[in-house]
Structures are given as structure tokens and as C-alpha cells.
Amino acid sequence: MDSGYDGEFNELVGELANAFNIDSQSMTLASMLYSIAQEKKSTNLIVRDINAKFDRIIGRLENLEAKIEETHTQSAQAGLTTRDQELLDYVRSSGEVCADMVKNQFNYRGTNAASGRLNKLFKEGVLQKTQKEGKIYYSLPNT
Length: 143
What we know:
This protein is mainly alpha-helical. The protein has a domain at 81-139: Arc Repressor Mutant, subunit A. Helices cover 78% and strands 8% of the residues. A hairpin with a 2-residue loop joins strand 2 and strand 3. The mean pLDDT is 84.
């Protein structure tokens, strides 16, 4: 009769032991998942901080680029004659000009003088030039 009770006891205790074993595994998994979630949260905060720092750096670089461009333009325009300044104002208002347009606007006798003045400003870096339909057009950089 002892063997019957032993078998029943082992059956009951075995099921209970399995239940504790399953609960132990569940707790271990839950603990691991919680740790992973905390690490992910921490990593996301770090990435957010890094992105904010990059945004600030990019903003500073853009400001520096604008200041450098402004300084370059001012230094290039500092040595300009009154006529060159008038020509730049005309280019600024027109968007882009060719030698014929400058000749007509400033009453030059020929296009050589207009072309020479435009080319001089191009060589000084004040103007940029492009060729369209056989004519050379000058404009301000980044317009």
C-alpha cells in the first residue's frame, strides 16, 4: 500500500514541482524582457541626445558658411569701383545679364567694354558665368 501512496504523492508533488519550474522560467523570461526594454529605452535616449547635438553642429556650420560667404562677398566688393558696384546692382536686379544687356544699360559704344568689365568681375569671384545659346551670361553666385 505504501507504493500506491508513494506514486500518488510523487504524482502530486511532481506536478507542483513542474508548476514551480514553469513559473521560474516565466519569471526569468519576464526579467530578461524587462532588462531588454530598459536597455532599449536607455539607447533611444542616447540616440536622441546625439541627434540633438548633430542638429546643433549642423546649425553652427550653416551659420559659419553664411558668415564666410558674406565676408568673401564683402571683401570682393570692397575693392570695386562705383561703376562695378552699379553693374553688380544691375545684375542683382536682373538675375543674369549678358554683354549686350550691359552695353545698352550703361550706354557703352561696343560690347567689348561691357564684356571686359563682366569678365573682370568674374575673375575676381564676384560673378559667375554660364553659356546659353551661344551667349555668355553673368549672375551673382548662388542665385
